[in-house]
Specification:
Helix content is 46%, strand content 10%. It is an alpha/beta fold. Strands 5-2-1-6-7-8 form a 6-stranded mixed sheet, with helices on both faces. Strands 3-4 form a two-stranded antiparallel ribbon. The longest helix has 18 residues, at 297-314. The chain has 13 helices and 8 strands. The chain is globular.
Length: 315
């Protein structure tokens, strides 16, 4: 990745186009009748993000593998309930609404024609791509996602924050360490431990039976981190209730592997891309053709105006 010293914005693209799909009516269609609500919704979302937050660089991070085998090997239930079709070679197919899946290639083509960097790496989720870009960034980072797992990257000292969509593609909650402590009782580094203990049914992570979010936060407050909690199991002086000690002891096999599954990777082999925010389309002819074919109209036009205005703002 080329050095970025200004504000870097990282999009959890699948998370955002899913939200756009459910937030924009399916009656929004191309001239041939194909639904393009996710396409137009995502373009409007990017327009709003650039207009409100003025990033210097922008990367659309993709799920090249939404359910990496190395995570499944550790916890077989990981995202298992979301598998639509198993593949012997390559990633399993994820369950996606029938009218959303055809829109994904359109989104990719439009981003490429705009010149917005789009990065997915084989064997990794978008979260891991985001984690690696964040680790390498030399300036502040805004992560735009509807996935709470990425709260673990929040770091006030480095200027890393999460912009979390509250409803559709409209309002965003700015999540920094203060917001995390207020809501969860942990900072960014502690969030991964909390998520490990609590589990997450939407990702097929069982967590420790009987340990919910509040109990996990109290345990982390008392013992510092997951390693401290595990050490407390064998310490008769540690202030664990008998039930907590029993549950944590029984969950040792899970706790031995879950942190690697929950933790976002920060060592993904990223391609050499230029993440600089484009101020004009990379391929105007291709973009015009895509806009006309899919009826992207005002959604695309407004984004182009915003990108041009951002250029004038930087002068």
């Amino acid at each position: 990745m080329r050095d970025v010293t200004g504000r870097l914005m990282l999009l959890d693209t699948a998370s955002l186009y899913f939200r756009a799909y459910f937030g924009v009516p399916e009656s929004v269609k191309a001239p041939d009748g194909t639904p393009v609500n996710a396409v137009r919704g995502l373009l409007e979302f990017i327009d709003r993000l650039v207009k409100d937050h003025h990033p210097d660089a922008l990367v659309a991070c993709m799920d090249a593998d939404w359910r990496p085998q190395w995570r499944v090997d550790l916890i077989p239930s990981y995202k298992a309930h979301r598998v639509a079709e198993e593949h012997a070679f390559g990633p399993d197919a994820e369950e996606i609404p029938d009218t959303l899946s055809p829109q994904v290639p359109i989104i990719e083509s439009v981003l490429d024609a705009l010149g917005i960097a789009r990065v997915g790496v084989a064997g990794y989720e978008a979260d891991d791509v985001i984690g690696t870009f964040t680790a390498r960034a030399r300036g502040p980072v805004d992560i735009v996602t509807g996935d709470r797992d990425l709260y673990q990257l929040v770091d006030d000292a480095r200027g890393v924050r999460v912009l979390y969509p509250l409803k559709g593609v409209g309002s965003l909650a700015l999540t920094d360490e203060s917001a995390l402590r207020e809501k969860y009782g942990v900072d960014g580094r502690g969030y991964a431990d909390l998520a490990t203990l609590r589990g997450d049914p939407s990702d097929g992570l069982p967590g420790v039976p009987g340990v919910g979010e509040k109990t996990a936060a109290k345990l982390l407050d008392a013992f510092g981190d997951l390693a401290g909690i595990i050490a407390a199991i064998d310490d008769p002086k540690a202030k664990l209730t008998p039930a907590q000690r029993t549950r944590l002891d029984g969950a040792r096999p899970y706790l031995a592997v879950a942190p690697k599954v929950v933790k976002v990777a920060d060592d993904v082999p990223l391609p050499d891309v230029d993440p600089t925010l484009p101020h004009a389309p990379r391929d105007p002819a291709a973009l015009d053709a895509l806009g006309a074919r899919w009826g992207l109209g005002n959604s695309l036009h407004r984004l182009l105006i915003t990108l041009d205005a951002q250029k004038r703002r930087e002068r």
